[in-house]
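During the reporting period, our protein records have gained a structure token line. A sample record is set out beneath this paragraph:
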Amino acid sequence: MVQTWMYHADLLGGIAARLAGVRSVFWGIRHSTLEKGKSKRSTIMIARLCALLSSWVPDKIICCAKKAQDVHADIGYSARKLRVIPNGYDLSRFRSDAAAGAKVRAELGLGSNDFIIGNVGRFDPLKDHFNLLQALARVAECKIPFRCLLIGKGLSPDNVDLVKNIAELGLQDSVLLVGQRSDVPAVMNSLDLHVLSSLSEGFPNVLAEAMACGTPCVSTDVGDALEIVGDQEACCPARDSRALAEVIIKLAREKQHSPSAWQARKITSSDRIAEKFSIKAMVEAYEACWFPAACDENR
């Protein structure tokens, strides 16, 4: 059998496998947005070509998110072959680690009692950092003290436009541009709350990674974010900074005024990822897709 991964490999690898006589070919889709202006023109063209061949080349087409399944069915992929297998996470790496979180805070000059909001993700229009900044400005207006870490490629002090936006909103003392880091589990442990402000996503890994570390999350309701977070009240519409601010304020007040409820939220966050999105669950789902007869015999 052959499992390919993403559009170009699906097209070239899939055809090569069929011509070589491979009986079982599986495509992998990791993309959930195929719109002009959001995706490369060449990417859209290859995806549409794959759609035309999807009835012939693959046995199954495995998507990382329900959103990806819907998008690709809409552009002509064989709907009967589409399957969703969510990402799985290494819970020996992404886990609660207070010492690692405290080390990151100390490195960045943050106090142990500071309320720390974080956003991990590259600087990109789809991540809609300006939406987050507008929401944070509203949080500041409500006299809720916080510091916000923006972590990822392009989120550094040399990003002139971002620095300007932060200053215009009066957030220069509240927002810290950290840039790209390799110690994401430690960073997640340093946060009290992770916020995803995107206007488009597929299966946003950062939510699951934060929650696996026991860090509660709020998110715009994009892609499979709600499926990961599992709490409608912790999600809000994209491009709505007022709604995003309201969710952040609600959770900030919960942490401040109801420590027991906040602790329960942290435990619920990590338990949800362990139950639904472990690597073990992902591997078993792939094996069941690749070798259904063998899996049925083992049950």
